[in-house]
Specification:
The protein is built from 14 helices and 3 strands. With about 280 residues, it is mainly alpha-helical. Strands 1-2-3 form a 3-stranded antiparallel beta sheet, covered by helices on one side. The protein is elongated.
Length: about 280
């Protein structure tokens, strides 16, 4: 009894949004090489963007939460969407010619904003601007930038961890990214630099800031707090593994303990971020 009305309703929705859906299909086809590149980076070994596959679903959920407010806004096409689309397509074409998929990925965001602006207008775009901009977290940063940032972060983490170990009564000397102790040494490699946690925590922090009730500066502070939290929790992990290596032996700081500490550190970082949010509220 209820299925026919639902079918009619679905047909009405498809008919109403047929042109945007058609434009969206062309949009996805035009970016197939870029999407394949992102997929490869998401699922690469030791990827810094393993969370990338989840980002579009989070964006969809955030927009779905606004469905009632969006339904109350009458779509009004805006001609200003056309130049935005043209700029985005131009960047995509240039990026494709030189195979710079990073900038091609960002052009996706520009074109998408242009399409929303053209088909639905500025009011709807303003309403869903954050969910759309949140897609930026699915675009992998070029590996050369990742390497440079990771190198600096692991040196910083090794330096802080070495000072902390000495303060704890465990003599340690820093040699680059290596922490040398009396009976063991720990190598802080790129994966343990804390950059992966920082990227994931920044995505999570942006959602917390978006949901937070309060003035803008409080939201900005909450988002920026992801940086010291990610660094501090990663340093804590290095100190933990270094202490185990020195006291009980390096064999006890690898395998399950090493991997489990990574998950626990991110969980602790999540708790700290939540606590900062509550304090700011």
């Amino acid at each position: 009894m209820t299925s026919p009305p639902r079918t009619v309703k679905m047909n009405d929705i498809l008919k109403k949004h047929s042109k945007p859906l058609f434009a969206g299909a062309i949009f996805l086809l035009a970016y197939v090489p870029t999407l394949i590149w992102m997929w490869d980076r998401w699922f690469a070994r030791d990827s810094y963007y393993s969370h990338g596959i989840l980002i579009p679903f989070v964006t969809g959920f955030l927009i779905w939460q606004l469905r009632e407010e969006l339904a109350a806004i009458k779509p009004v096409r805006s001609p200003f969407g056309i130049p935005v689309i043209v700029v985005g397509i131009g960047i995509h074409i240039l990026s494709s010619l030189f195979r710079v998929y990073f900038t091609s990925g960002f052009s996706m965001l520009i074109v998408l904003i242009g399409l929303i602006l053209f088909f639905y207008g500025s009011q709807i775009l303003k309403k869903i601007l954050f969910p759309v901009l949140f897609l930026v977290f699915m675009f992998p940063v070029p590996l050369i930038i990742i390497s440079n940032i990771s190198f600096k972060m692991k040196l910083l983490a090794a330096d802080i961890a070495t000072s902390s170990l000495n303060g704890m009564g465990l003599p340690a000397i820093q040699k680059g990214s290596i922490i040398q102790m009396r009976h063991a040494y720990v190598i802080v490699d790129d994966v343990c630099s804390g950059l992966r946690s920082l990227i994931s925590l920044a995505a999570l922090g942006s959602i917390f800031a978006y949901w937070m009730k309060g003035v803008m500066w409080r939201r900005v502070v909450l988002f920026l707090s992801t940086i010291p939290i990610a660094i501090a929790t990663n340093v804590g992990r290095i100190i933990f593994l270094s202490s185990i290596s020195e006291i009980w032996g390096p064999q006890y700081a690898i395998g399950f303990v090493h991997d489990a500490s990574g998950f626990l550190v991110f969980a602790f970082a999540f708790i700290l971020l939540f606590a900062v949010g509550r304090l700011l509220e």
